[in-house]
Write a structure and sequence with these properties.
Radius of gyration: 21 Å
CATH topology: Alpha-Beta Plaits
Structural class: alpha+beta
Shape: globular
Strand content: 15-25%
CATH class: Alpha Beta
Number of helices: 5
CATH architecture: 2-Layer Sandwich
Number of strands: 8
Oligomer: single chain
Largest sheet: 6 strands, antiparallel
Bound molecules: 6-(adenosine tetraphosphate-methyl)-7,8-dihydropterin, magnesium ion
Order of helices and strands: HEHEEEHEHEEHE
């Protein structure tokens, strides 16, 4: 029946618009920062292998890979120096699935958890997931110690000079406070995003 003059006519929403709105709500590409550390075995090969595994994850797209830093161990028993790096990804995965993937990558490199802060072939931590702040001990966001660790802040700043640690401020300012003692960029080494 044709509408009368005083009846409002609401045109139906285009189906494609409805679909893309729904998809946006369900699937958004979130920005995630991951930190990698290794101080056993072939450290550079391990970090590169981990980056390759991260890049191969469905729903994960690698955006940036930092330089390699050689760093003095922080905390734990006496142990050798670390190689540390930071990668930035965009992902469709939830925070829990990102952590699960990080744990699988660690396992693939035969990480054995013997003691907290002890030597390890590979540690992959979720440093930040967008601006999410959560206190869950299984997955604390941002990583509870990232803002005070030069071995995370220095490589992160290299790939994103505007980076912020949610709730703590700019990475550049945090690194200026913490200082660069014990962290040394290895100009002679390189990690790559496209292998
Ligand atoms: N967990 C909670 N939040 C997170 C998160 N944001 N990312 C839980 C990753 N894991 C998170 O982790 C212990 C528990 O933390 C897990 O059950 C996880 O669900 P883990 O990797 O099993 O153990 P860990 O790494 O020995 O302990 P932790 O507390 O993560 O140690 P950190 O703080 O990561 O420190 N010195 C140098 N120079 N370079 C390093 O890379 N790394 C460490 C480890 C110590 N000193 C270092 C370095
Ligand atoms: Mg860890």
């Amino acid at each position: 029946m044709a509408p009368t003059a005083d009846e409002p006519v609401v045109p139906p929403a285009a189906e494609s618009a409805v679909e893309s709105t729904a998809q946006r709500a369900l699937l958004s590409w979130n920005r995630v920062v991951l930190a990698l550390g290794s101080n056993l075995g072939n450290r550079l090969e391990t970090l590169q292998g981990a980056i390759d595994e991260i890049a191969d994850t469905p729903g994960v797209s690698l955006i940036g890979v930092s330089p390699v830093y050689e760093t003095a161990p922080v905390g734990g028993p006496e142990q050798g120096s670390y190689f540390n790096a930071v990668v930035e990804v965009r992902t469709l995965l939830t925070p829990d699935l990102v952590l699960e993937r990080c744990n699988s990558v660690e396992e693939a490199f035969q990480r054995v958890r013997v003691e907290r802060w002890g030597p390890r072939t590979l540690d992959v931590d979720v440093i930040a997931f967008e601006n999410v702040v959560q206190d869950d001990p299984r997955l604390t966001l941002p990583h509870p110690r990232a803002h005070e660790r030069a071995f995370v802040l220095a490589p992160w700043l290299d790939i994103d000079p505007e980076a912020q640690v949610p709730g703590h401020g700019r990475v550049a300012d945090l690194l200026a406070q913490v200082g660069l003692e014990g962290v040394h960029r290895r100009e002679d080494l390189e990690l790559t995003a496209d292998r």
